[in-house]
Design a protein that fits this description.
Layout: H1 3-18, H2 24-34, H3 38-49, H4 54-65, H5 70-75, H6 79-100, E1 127-133, E2 139-143, H7 150-154, E3 158-160, E4 164-167, E5 176-181, E6 185-190, E7 196-199, E8 203-208, E9 216-228, E10 237-241, E11 244-248, E12 252-257, E13 264-270, E14 273-277, E15 280-284, E16 288-293, E17 296-301, H8 304-307, E18 314-321, H9 322-333, E19 336-339, E20 348-354, H10 359-369, E21 372-377, E22 380-385
Parallel strand pairs: 1-6, 4-6, 9-10, 19-22
Antiparallel strand pairs: 1-2, 1-5, 3-4, 5-8, 6-7, 7-9, 8-9, 9-12, 10-11, 11-14, 12-13, 13-16, 14-15, 16-17, 18-20, 21-22
Helix pairs in contact: 1-2, 1-6, 3-6, 4-10
């Protein structure tokens, strides 16, 4: 039996067992699965003993009872059915673990009354953290928990305030610095000209310590960033990203240019920008987005406030495929996402959530919106059919 069919079948048998609805033939099939490995046996005993559901059920009920989720509550005709389907997601996680090696049970033997070890949650929201690379090869760890070398930064007129860097007017320093924000991170930056930049998870920005000449140039070498550019008509501002160049005077805009995504996008919040690539270019007005795919631009009307809201703590998605949504969650929570069926990536979602929410809360929202099950196994999110 292939992995997807095994997950579906065993999940259904476990749910029926907990609901005391197995036929004799189904009970024999479940017992055969239980006896086929120690991991299966431990899962079966944990579920049967009732130890599995305390923490997760509390998270589930909190999400269900939130004032702004009344519509979700109305769609749940039988509340305990949702709970049993959560168990099915747990069972799916163990089936996947047995096939592709996402963890074992052996290290947890002898520990009393804890959450399912194979379905442990090690996923937490991102925090403010980054690495600043200087021209001479020095690296400075940034973030609220990092021991920052303030003496080294002061040589360049840089101030670090836990969640942001600020460049002052450095004299006689003509070099570029690179800010690398890892998966599970974010960081803010004020450039020498007072332009503000918010850099998203999994992104790399290269910029000069001070701007010289008749233009200001920075390079988004990977990822996503929002720019609030200080107006200076004598020195236009340019952002180079994934073959595109964005020309501005003073404006606010977002660039998304992750390599693993097939499209690159520039979204204008206010002001005006010209986006060029090769011989082609487009001029954007507020609430327009230029998408570069297959060498051509497509201009769309969008709600720029929602697209740019990631920098203030909210993630919006409008008819977004689940595959793309999973990529974004993976970057922000620094985790891997595994689909038990490729067709699930094409499901679309519309909604929003605060990006500092617990991953269990977010999973409950997505499960309530579509016919899917989501389980958390260590640093991996497993998405499958119900």
């Amino acid at each position: 039996m292939d992995t997807e069919r095994q997950i579906t079948r065993i999940s259904r048998l476990l749910v029926k067992f907990l609901d005391d609805a197995l036929s004799a033939e189904e009970l024999g099939e479940l017992e055969a699965w239980r006896d086929s490995s120690e991991a299966n046996g431990q899962l079966f005993r944990k579920l049967a003993s009732g130890e599995w559901d305390a923490a997760d059920y509390r998270r589930y009920r909190a999400a269900l009872e939130a004032d702004d989720w009344k519509e979700i509550r109305r769609r749940m005709r039988r509340r305990h059915l949702r709970l049993w389907k959560r168990v099915a997601a747990y069972a799916a996680a163990v089936c996947v673990a047995g096939v592709v090696g996402y963890g074992t049970w052996s290290a947890f033997e002898g520990q009393a009354r804890q959450e399912l070890p194979v379905v442990r949650n090690e996923i937490v929201p991102g925090t403010s953290k980054a690495v600043l690379k200087l021209a001479g090869g020095q690296q400075v760890l940034l973030g609220q928990e990092a021991g920052v070398d303030t003496v080294l930064l002061a040589q360049y007129g840089i101030k670090e305030e836990g969640k942001a860097l600020s460049y002052g007017k450095a004299k006689n320093v003509d070099e570029y610095h690179t800010l690398e924000v890892p998966r599970g991170g974010e960081f803010a930056l004020t450039l020498e000209d007072s332009t503000q930049v918010w850099v998203n998870a999994g992104s790399v920005l290269r910029f000069p310590v001070r701007f010289g000449g008749d233009k200001r140039e920075v390079y988004l070498e990977e990822g996503e960033a929002y720019f609030e550019v200080t107006r200076d008509e004598q020195r236009p501002f340019q952002v180079h990203a994934a073959g595109m160049t964005v020309h501005v005077l003073g404006t606010g805009f977002n660039i998304s240019a992750y390599r693993q995504e097939g499209k690159k996008a520039v979204t204008l919040a206010h002001g005006a920008v010209e986006v060029g690539e090769g011989a082609g270019s487009v001029v954007l007005q507020p609430n327009e987005q230029a998408v570069l795919a297959d060498g051509a631009f497509e201009v769309r009307k969008v709600d720029a406030g929602k697209i740019c809201a990631w920098r203030t703590g909210t993630l919006y998605f409008d008819a977004m495929p689940l595959g793309e949504l999973a990529e974004r969650l993976g970057r922000w929570f620094n985790c891997e996402v595994f689909f038990t069926a490729e067709n699930l990536k094409q499901l679309t979602f519309t909604g929003a959530f605060r990006k500092y929410e617990d991953i269990g809360y977010i999973a409950s929202i997505l499960e309530a919106a579509a016919d899917i099950s989501i389980a958390v196994n260590g640093k991996t999110i497993i998405i499958g059919n119900k």
